[in-house]
Here is the input.
Amino acid sequence: MTTLLALDTATEACSVALLHEGRVYSRYEVIPRLHAQRVLPMVQEVLAEAGIVLGAVEAIAFGRGPGAFTGVRIAVGVVQGLAFALGRPVLPISNLAVMAQRAHREQGVSQVATAIDARMDELYWGCYRLEDGEMRLAGVEAVLPPEQVALPRAAEGEWFGAGTGWAFAARIPVAVSGMDAGLLPHAEDLLTLATFAWARGEAVDAEQAQPVYLRDNVATPKKG
Here is the structure.
């Protein structure tokens, strides 16, 4: 059975989850600015609870962004350090997808419009649909002013709004059946998505553990 570790520090929440022998162990705390101090102790706590050592982990998943610049950097730094030391691959997972997966787990919804407050009067935005238990991206992830976000083309049925960006609901031209503007990424849901990615062979080497901010896509030349 697969043993995967997942961690996320991209938003106000700091969380860690471990899959071992079919069981999930997790820690979750909303602790702005304390992620760097807590994330490794949380890793040790879930390992101890499962009764295994770090070397038993086969791959490490992490929230690759979008999110707070410093928070995403913390996750990348910690994951690269652990992965290089262990000689293990990594699984970068979108934080917007993690939030959609959490909304599905907690609310039972199958179509989720996720939004994170990106500051500077913009939102990180992504729309997800449930397919075989996995929230998958419909369209593209983007950073936009609230007035410019939209559902994917040919969108039908009810959509649920999730994430801190929905604090701007009055400015978002998207009708939702419900919303949770306090929803943050949780490593348990990151772990769920990582399990699908692992099964598809999407793990990459540790040096490819890179943050995704969305905002810097315009300024970064595409590699040929």
Q: What stands out?
A: The first helix runs from residue 35 to 50. DSSP finds four helices and eleven strands in the chain. Confidence is low (pLDDT under 50) at residues 218-224.
